[in-house]
Amino acid sequence: MSGTMFIFGLGFSARVIAKRLLEQGWTVAGTTRSGEAVDLPGVTVHPFDRDHPLPPKVLDGVTAVLSSVPPDAQGDPVLDLMGEAIRARAPGWIGYLSTTGVYGDHGGGWVDETTPVNPSLDRSRRRAAAEKSWLALSAHVFRLAGIYGPGRSAVDTVRSGEAKRIAKPGQVFSRIHVEDIAGAVLASLARPHPGRVYNLCDDDAAPPQEVIAHACALLGVEPPAELAWEDAQAVLSPMALSFYADNKRVSNRRMKEELGVVLKYPSYRDGLAAILTST
Question: InterPro entries per the record (predicted)?
Fold first, then answer.
């Protein structure tokens, strides 16, 4: 299948999705904040933010819309500025990239799409509110776990010399390789379920210090000494600390069963090995 996709927010994940769509014969346009070009020949790029709204006509003829733009303190900028244009054109498929952060903290326990949202961070509360508005448009909502891929992985962090092996007892994170995000979105386009929520994550929730240690082993370097959580709190930025506020394992069963997704990288071990050989 193919069509015309408009992507709000051509960031890390959305660019990989756009590349896969182009390979399948889609026409793709989208936005960046300043309108800077992306390294994707054939993609038309428009500037867009609250200070640079788009004319509704850019969505004329669009058959699918995807947003990866995060909400701000005022709400969701895409819906605030372009919601009416999207409704008026009623594209056959609408998608929104959200986050598993909307579930909040579960003490390392499992969550799935039936788990009530209970965000513990302000940015996750804004995401939960944005999800409701997108679902009112019958969007497909994709809750992404920790995203990694080439240029943005534990391998890259170790190579940069900035890796820390932080040991917070019982802490685990679920992750998803950016290529598997793209695979799931394309699977949804082929098997649409408007108004459905999907967790996008791999099969291997793991402690973050184990991922760093594995990246070091792949690179043949000595891993940094473990840093106790009590000591880490004094050296991590507030943003870095906030990632440790939630502790949960995320189920991807619905993604596999309803969309037929077969993960290319079911574990961070598979994903990091592929990144190492490609860079």
Answer: NAD(P)-bd_dom_sf (IPR036291)
Contact partners, residue 179, CB within 8 Å, separation at least 6: 16, 149, 264, 265
Rounded to an integer, what distance in angstroms lies between the CA atom of residue 134 and that of residue 70?
12
Across-strand partners of 67? 8, 96
| Residue 114, CA atoms < 13 Å, CB-side half-sphere | 2
Q: What is the pLDDT of residues 72-91, one digit of tens each?
A: 999 999 999 999 999 999 99
Give the separation between CA 193 and CA 93, rounded to whole angstroms.
Answer: 9
Vertex 275, ends 99 and 27: CA angle to 5°? 60
User: ∠ CA 221-153-65 to the nearest 5 degrees?
Assistant: 170
- The pLDDT score that the predictor gives to residue 4 is 98
Six token digits for residue 103: 């579930």
pLDDT the model gives residue 34: 83
Contacts of 233 (CB under 8 A, 6+ apart): 241
* 249 neighbors 174 (Cβ within 8 angstroms): yes
Residue tagged 């994707």 (tokens): 40
**pLDDT 10s digits, 21-74:** 999 999 999 999 987 778 899 999 999 999 999 999 999 999 999 999 999 999
Chain CA centroid to CA 114, Å? 19
- Joined together, the tokens standing for residue 60 give 């004329």
Contact in structure between 199 and 252 (CB atoms under 8 Å):
yes
Token pair, residue 111, equals: 């969550």
Q: How many separate helices (H) and strands (E) can be counted in the chain?
A: 10, 13
Tokens of 228: 């106790």
